[in-house]
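Researcher: Predict the fold of SDR family oxidoreductase.
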Amino acid sequence: MNLTVLAASGQTGIALTRQALRRGHTVTAIARDPEKIALPDSPNLRKVAGDVNDAASIAAVMDGDSVVLSALGTDRAGTLLTGARAVVVAGPRRVIWLGAYGTGKSAQVAGEGAGMLAKVLGDRLPDKVEADNTVLAAGGTVFHAGMLADGPESPRRRTVGLESGPPFDLGAKVSRETVAAAMLDEAEAPGFPGAVALPLAE
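Model: Structure tokens for SDR family oxidoreductase follow.
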């Protein structure tokens, strides 16, 4: 498949890009500074500059056949919603978006821990929720991951819907490699279009 990875220079974006290439896909990797996409050159990898605050730069590398996987994250409120709108307006075939477990549609399922997360996120929480909803309204899939960690892909990983979500636990971490694998599974065989999916380590 021809995949587009947004925020490809971050840790999760690198994992997505690396795994996609390993699975035999062709990848357009987008970052504000493509030089920071720390992966060796490959015939199947195209590194391009793009900034979600410049919607035209995003639209320039996407079309109706694009399958977009976003690892966009930020410490500044407003960026996620701006990014979601830029991607949706570009009109890709599918969007697979990374969000946070315990926010928005998964808050009730996550239970009491979601309140703690809301305090940590502060003014970034509405931004996350609105970005997720923008992607879902366009028929995309939003992955609500727990606390991200380094480490290998979990051999017992699974992806479930909100109805099977566990209580939110700050100590129950999931590796970025596990999350990336789950997002790529969704790109290859859609199971949660227009819905929130939960990537679990076991």
